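Extended Data, panel c. Modelled sequence:
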Amino acid sequence: MDKLKIIIKSLFWVIITQVIIFSTLYFLGFRITYAPNLETSWNAVAAIGQWAGALVGVLIPIAAVYLQAKLDKNKREIGESNSDLLNELKEFKLEYSEKLKTLSELVDEKGNIVINSGYFTDDSKNNLKEKALKFVNISMITKTKRVAEHLEISHDKAYDLLVEMAIHDGSISSAGQIRKENMDNIVWTKKTR
């Protein structure tokens, strides 16, 4: 809502400025007139059109690269923010996991509410894959080292898991050559369908 107010305020000041400029020019004697005795030079009109086309042809790729860079920067910032949120949830889970276990033990199995922390307790391969997939999706763009730190497993084990997820399962995408000696440079991304 604040952005809308800023845009409206900016448009208001642009309109006021234009009214002041055009009013001043009008009172100084400037007028928009048509002079039928002047001959139109179509070569000059064509030259202006060619220059405008050349200028637009240069500005469009520059604008596209600039906008893509801004989008990539925003994507990285969102991914880092999501990773931080996931780490905060993980700390919360560690802090309260014992309390949640105690509460869930007090509830019987006859229809009463069972409190579940929502995290896996064993580190089987499927559970690691699921945790890695969630982390890659939340991060949007990540590297092998960050996934290994998040899963609390070795760098090599995380690489093998991510390679299997990218090549065999097809659940994530990768950028870079998938080779063991290149594992620090590979970028793992969310699978786009």
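The helical segments are 2-27, 42-106, 125-139, 144-151, 155-169. This feature is highlighted in the accompanying rendering.
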